[in-house]
Amino acid sequence: MDELKSLVTKHTANESADKWKNSPGSQPTLTPRQLAIAALIQRTQERRGLPLKSAGFELQNALRAWGDAVQNVPDEYLTRAYNRAADNWPWTDRKDFLPDAVAESYKILLVEDRQRVEAEKRNAARRNPDTYRCYHCQDMGYQGLYTYQHGLWYSSQRPCCCEAAPANQRQQFPLDETVWFCNRYGLYVSRTDIEKYGVPNSSFKDAISSK
Questions:
Q1: How far is the CA of 49 from the CAs of 1, 59, 102, 135, 180, in angstroms?
Q2: What does each C-alpha distance from 178 to 141, 181, 189, 208 come to in angstroms?
Q3: Is there a contact between 188 and 145 (Cβ–Cβ < 8 Å)?
Q4: How do 180-182 and 152-159 pair as beta strands?
Q5: What are the tens digits of pLDDT across the range 66-84?
Q6: Secondary structure element (H or E) that encloses residue 205, with its range
C-alpha cells in the first residue's frame, strides 16, 4: 500500500492530474489505484520520450486499457511488476509498451516470491542451506530457469531428477552446472546468457551477491 501511495503522490504532483482532480465539471475523481496506474502510464510516456497524456479522454482511454490488463495485479505488486516489465522491455526498438507485460511480470514475481519464502523457511529450519537432500532443486522438485529470447527474459520450470519431482516428469539428469549458473534461491540461468546479456533482474543479482 505504501508503494501505491507513493505513486499517487508522484502522479498528483503532475499538472494534468491536478486538473483532472480539481476542475469543476471534469472527469470523476480517480481512485488511488487509478491514480497509481495513471502514474505508470505517464512514466511510460517519459520513458518513450513522448509528451505526457493530457487529462480527459486521452488519459481516460489509456486508463481503461491498462486497468483491464492489470486487473489481477494486486496494489502491492503494481510497482514491482511494472519495474520488472520495464527493465526487460526493448525500449530501443521504439515499440509501444504493453500493459500486458506488467501482468506477465506479476506472475513471475509470484513464483519467485514463493520460491524465496520456501527456501528461506527450509534454511531457517535446518540452520544450514547446504543440507538439502537435493541441492539441484533445493527439494522443490523443479528447477527454475531463465532464458533470453528475442530481446526478453523468460522464466520456466524444469522437473528435477530427484524424488521430489513427479515420477512421470522426472528428468534423467540434473542441469549441467558447467552450462547453467544457479543462485542461492535455486534459480538457473545459462552462463552464456549471463555473459552476453547480464543477469535477468535485480532479484537474481541480489541472490548472487548474498550467496
A1: 29, 17, 20, 46, 37
A2: 21, 8, 11, 17
A3: yes
A4: unpaired
A5: 999 999 999 999 999 999 9
A6: helix 202-209
Give the separation between CA 98 and CA 100, rounded to whole angstroms.
Answer: 5
Distances (CA, A) of 65 to 11, 69, 100, 124, 136: 18, 6, 10, 43, 42
Sign of the CA dihedral running 63, 67, 70, 74: positive
Strand partners, 103: none
Query: pLDDT averaged over the chain?
Result: 81
Look up residue 117 and give its amino acid.
V
Asked if the model's pLDDT at residue 25 lies above 60, the reply is no
Range of the domain at 17: 2-100
> What are the grid coordinates assigned to 177, written together?
552446472
Q: How many other CB atoms sit within 10 Å of the CB of residue 72?
A: 9
Q: DSSP for 76-100, please give it.
A: HHHHHHHHHHHHTS-GGGTPPPPTH
* Residue after which a domain boundary falls, among 83, 100, 117: 100
Kindly state the cell numbers that stand for 55.
487529462
- 100, 117, 152 - which closes a domain: 100
**Does position 37 have pLDDT exceeding 80, yes or no?**
yes
Q: Assess if residue 129 is contained within a domain.
A: no
Same domain, 27 and 76: yes
Q: Answer whether residue 106 is part of any domain.
A: no
| Residue 8 pLDDT | 46
- 203 pLDDT band (50/70/90 cuts)? confident
Is 187 in contact with 113 (CB distance < 8 Å)?
no
